[in-house]
Amino acid sequence: MAEQHSWLILSLVPITGFIAGFINTLAGSGSLITLPVLILLGLPANVANGTNRVGILFQNIVAVATFWRHGQYEGQRPAPLIVPSVLGAIVGAQLAVNLDETVLQRTIAGLMLFMLLLVLVRPRRWLEEHDGTAGLAYPWRFIIFFAVGAYGGFIQAGVGFFLLAGLVLGAGYSLVGSNAVKNLIVLFFTVAALAVFILNDQVRWELGLLLATGNALGAWVAARMAIARGAPFVRWTLIVILTLASIFMLSRSF
Question: How many domains does the chain have?
């Protein structure tokens, strides 16, 4: 595929990957940038969806490693949340070609607007420090993170918002702690989802690896900024990206 495209167009792939990696590490919806670019390069939507996961994988490897080196996982217990997310991602990836895209886009936009209201109306809840022991009982957490994993396996775009909401409001994590755990969860369920796309021959590695170079660098920059600037910076980044992503999704679905 790659040899059919000019170097000028291909140069956009790592650039958009950097932007997406930065956005995804701090909030979510970076795939709203990378998926259209991959489709513009001639990939069918389902192949673009699978190819995009290569960049997501490398992005989260870098983000998790950066958060780990700075002690962001000390005292965290993410395993009970990773398991349902991975199971959900396998189901979601299997269903990736079977849902109506317009209905899905409108649903995503509505959920993003709802979360934007939560972030604006309850700011203290997102800024307070927690240790992950509060929140909903585990059966509810399992259901929530299975559903989020299924959505992430299906389309990926915007999954970071849903994970942050689940971690802060459902599992009782702090916002910065949630950001670190979010990337860890995405790393695990991306491995599962990518395996499904590979088995179905829906990954173009030359474009995926080119995208991954940008994703990884963007993730490294964003993770360091999140650690250095703390919860207020992450919250305001979340507000801005939620607003822009909601508008974008609504404009595409009507």
Answer: 1
